Amino acid sequence: MSRAQPASDPSPASHAADAAALAGLRLRCPRCGSAIDTLDCPACGFAIVIDDGIAHALAPESAARHARFIADYERIRAAEGRGSASADFYLALPYHDASGRNRDQWRMRARSYDCIVRQLPQGGRILDLGAGNGWMSFRLALAGYRPTAVDLLGNDRDGLGAARHYRARLPALFARFQAEIRRLPFADAQFDAAVFNASFHYAEDGEACLREALRCVRKGGMVVISDTPWYARDASGRQMLAERREAFLRRHGTAADALASLGYLTDERLQQMAAALSIRWEVHRPWYGLRWALRPFAAKLRGRREPSKFRLYVARKPA
């Protein structure tokens, strides 16, 4: 992996540690699927470039297709006050939101994370899909796992660049890849688990993304979907998406629908994916508190659509 470009890494030692984390992975070209020994694809010429510790593995055509989505997403997240200039904010996640802006959401993330960890094999190699600022990879690394963070965003507040805040707390920072989830730059069967961390609902093609995650997982390994909204009725999910588009247009001047994402889960969608991929779902229900549990009853009394539920879905790759 000789094409590493240190850019603004704080020191040669930290850059060497980042390179060592990448060196433990077997890669493949995200454009054509060929195996690559370094960072250059011998078949199509695509090159993964490391900049400030982030391995950029987004092919130009994929980058162009996602450009508007990334721009809208970053603008909306910034307007919502996501991220912080303080390292303390990132180091406390998900158990404490030092900004105070999204405390309820982070409280739920913390309970989901605790449930996720109970499913994972201790010390395993974990693929964190939709890693955002890398908080889950950081927590996993502290707990002795070997995470690899993947996201479309590379910025320093809400994307992979924010992981710089974790560097001083870890012997070596976990590997970070800017990549498309349905075109992952990893060779087959090398992770013990792949976790869609509050990210699966952004998938354009849920089945394709699951298939790609399963490809990267060892036989008997698992794929986990966490913090993606579930509805008993498809009509409720469609109504939620319409309400969100209207709210985004009103607040941010964009519908945030540059990509036709999955948006939510239903039992029917889960069953269709399970049948197509020959998997079975285990369903876990984290406890988010009495107020959250009473939401469906409150919505029914007020004549509103059913609220979303968040569950943990675990599937194992057939041996």
UniProtKB/TrEMBL annotation:
Keywords (alphabetical) are: Methyltransferase, Transferase, Ubiquinone
Entries under InterPro entries matching the protein:
Methyltransf_11, SAM-dependent_MTases_sf
The processes (GO biological process) annotated in the record are:
methylation
One Pfam family linked to the record: Methyltransf_11
The answer, when asked if Transferase is one of the entry's keywords, is: yes
A GO MF term: S-adenosylmethionine-dependent methyltransferase activity
- Domain of life according to the entry: Bacteria
- By its UniProt entry, which CDD domains does this protein fall under? AdoMet_MTases (cd02440)
Pinpoint the Methyltransferase type domain residues: 127-225
Return the protein name: Methylase involved in ubiquinone/menaquinone biosynthesis
Look up and give the organism this protein is from.
Rhodanobacter denitrificans
